[in-house]
Design a protein that fits this description.
Length: about 325
């Protein structure tokens, strides 16, 4: 049952916990009787319960939509459940006051909890007006807070609500909402580069997104999260990324280092070879060729690796001692281990 957790300003924060199956079933049967419908079949009741995840608000919405279409259209239970669960939420969303709908759009686009201050900035809504809209949305079950302080952490109550809202947004408006979210997040210290990149990407601002993902990749590399860094680099290398030749080399070097760190030596060696071929700086070419040789050795390509390293050592004026077949065998065994 709902419990009052904290009182702030002119409203009480209500936390709605998922209903037990027994209570939810009791409500469904009671609503069915009040609506003068035949008793719900176990399959229908189970499907509605599964879709609602015990959320009382969603449970009631799904039942009302079912009752409406069962009376009017006499469609099968399965057809209704497939066609109308999201439609019911979209109709309810459309009935909200314009300003409350506007605020809810940003909460849906955010995809993560957002503070009152962030929501105020991105929606450009005066605090008093924003508070009134949040009170309304909380009372209707659209939003909730994960923390005790409602003002600090707000999000959509259920993923199905978010999906219904996003589907209802025209494409150009959705792009603008994502762009505004990215701009707002850019004022944070330190900037949440990955989140900014996601919003710029969804706003189809690929140049800005690529720059953010590169920063996120560098942060991930610094913390040792090399696989995460490689994921960011996929989008950081978008064709619309605006970089000069030096910056392109730096990004490729970062990718090669991350590949080497996760043990993908063959791909790392290939990247270092590409850097060697593309670079015009003699010192850089020497570095890339030596790194390629190291990674080919780690990949088990001993002859190619030693050839690359020999070239690098000769350029440095260092003579490598010739290895016997025994030393080659030892080196190969170390690679395997």
């Amino acid at each position: 049952l709902p419990t009052v957790r904290q009182k702030q300003l002119d409203f009480a924060l209500i936390e709605v916990t998922p209903l037990p199956s027994e209570s939810a079933n009791h409500l469904l049967q009671r609503w069915s009787s009040e609506s003068h419908l035949d008793s719900l079949t176990p399959a229908v009741a189970s499907n509605i319960l599964d879709r609602s995840h015990g959320n009382p608000f969603l449970l009631k919405e799904l039942f009302l939509a079912y009752a409406y279409h069962a009376k009017r259209d006499a469609i099968s239970d399965a057809d209704w459940l497939d066609r109308n669960s999201q439609g019911s939420l979209r109709r309810r969303f459309a009935l909200l006051p314009i300003q409350a709908e506007y605020v809810l759009q940003f909460l849906a686009v955010s995809g993560q909890p957002i503070t009152f201050h962030q929501l105020q900035i991105v929606s450009r809504t005066p605090p008093d007006e924003l508070q009134r809209n949040l009170n309304l949305l909380a009372a209707q079950g659209w939003i909730h807070s994960r923390s005790r302080d409602f003002m600090s952490d707000i999000e959509i109550s259920h993923d199905k609500f978010r999906q219904a809202i996003l589907v209802s947004l025209p494409r150009d408006r959705l792009l603008r909402r994502h762009f505004r979210m990215a701009i707002m997040l850019s004022t944070e210290v330190p900037p949440p580069w990955a989140r900014m990149g996601d919003h710029y990407w969804n706003a189809e601002q690929y140049r800005e997104a690529a720059a953010c993902y590169l920063q996120a990749a560098q942060q991930a590399r610094e913390t040792g999260s090399f696989r995460e860094a490689l994921q960011f680099l996929v989008r950081a290398n978008h064709e619309k990324a605006d970089r000069n030749q030096k910056e392109v080399e730096e990004v490729a070097m970062l990718e090669a280092e991350c590949l080497a760190a996760v043990g993908n030596s063959r791909e790392a060696a290939t990247r270092f070879e590409q850097l060697y071929q593309a670079s015009e700086d003699p010192d850089s070419k020497l570095l890339y060729r030596g790194l390629a040789g190291e990674q080919w050795i780690r990949a088990g390509q001993l002859d190619s690796g030693l050839e690359y390293l020999d070239h690098t050592l000769r350029r440095l004026g260092i003579t490598r001692l010739k290895h016997s077949w025994i030393s080659h065998l030892v080196l190969r065994l170390k690679i395997l281990n």
